[in-house]
Amino acid sequence: MERKGCGIGGVFFKFKAHLLMILLQLGYSFVYFIADSSFQHGFNPYVYVTYRNIVAGLALLPFAFFLERKTRPKLTLALFLEIFVLSLLGASLSLNMYFASLKYTNPTFATILYNTLASITFIIAAILRVEVINLRNPRSIAKVLGTVVSLGGVMIVTLYRGPIIRNIWPPLIHIHKTNHIHEEWLKGSLLAIASCVAWAIWFIMQAYSVKRYPAPLSLTTWVCLVGGAQSAVFTMIVEHNKSAWTVGFNVDLWSILYSGVVASGLFTFVQMWCTEEKGPVFVTMFNPLLTVLVALLSYFVVGDKLHLGCIVGAIIVVIDLYLLIWGKEEEQVADIKIAKERLTCNSDDPEKQDNLDL
After folding, report:
1. Residue partners of 178: CB distance under 8 A and separation at least 6
2. Residue 186 phi/psi, 5° resolution?
3. Does pTM surpass 0.70?
4. What are the tens digits of pLDDT across the range 305-355?
5. Of 55, 140, 216, 342, whose Cβ has the fewest other Cβ atoms within 10 Å?
6. In this record, what's one Pfam family (predicted)?
7. Is the sign of the CA dihedral 168, 169, 173, 179 positive or negative?
């Protein structure tokens, strides 16, 4: 019995990151339904984003303050301006557009378009020459092909709805929906794609910002708090009704607390740990699971209508996302192999070794 327990413990330790990422995607899927229910209840998406960022920043603040006291660099004006732009792209503008798109579509549709983030990031990185493309290399061809076909899948989702797939049984959870809002699919699609473009630029910029500000928890806290302030200013400009800021003891409060403390707070720790242990490619490989979970919950639990175009587009996007990730992962493996070969050659060269010794 003891050996069996050790065996189970060993398996759990080996696949701990996999299990955490699966639970992470399941936890993220609840964000969509809680937020969607809150919006249908009449809660303003812009107020939601403002409160979510502020709650997330306050939840991360004590951990960032105590855990990164020695590694946190001094905040200069240049760094603050960089954080301001990061907050605008990653926590304010992108989130406001994304959750506004959720108001006009549904959770399944929004997560399908979110899967194009990797493809859009690749395109922008290639334009900025951060990503190198070599059409003679099969790995680069896989990345380009995955990007093109993935965007084709998005076009199918956006422009072709197709027949409705009938629900097998009545919804287990009833969410009151305003049908006239959910008819504006094109508007919701454009908002979701625009948010992905903002996120893509944010990811590319973040890679450089972390090097200049090597305190990820503190950086995330700053981004959340500054993003909350930016979103508050924007909301006050577009929303003149003061009652929109009132949060009752209902689904609106739970959506803010869950999204801020759990999704943006706790899940940030988990995702950072998995990235450190397994790398960013490993983490992104679980993104399509979010689409599958949201689609299943939407159809079987909430009773949302699924269209044929949505299913076809989702399959194309997910398959080609993995093609893009495979090309990127193989490229990283090849780079590591080349680096090791160069290191071996340098160590075998007596003259270079003498220089190293000196």
Report:
1. 40
2. -65, -40
3. yes
4. 777 777 777 777 677 666 666 666 666 666 677 777 777 766 555 554 554
5. 342
6. EamA
7. positive
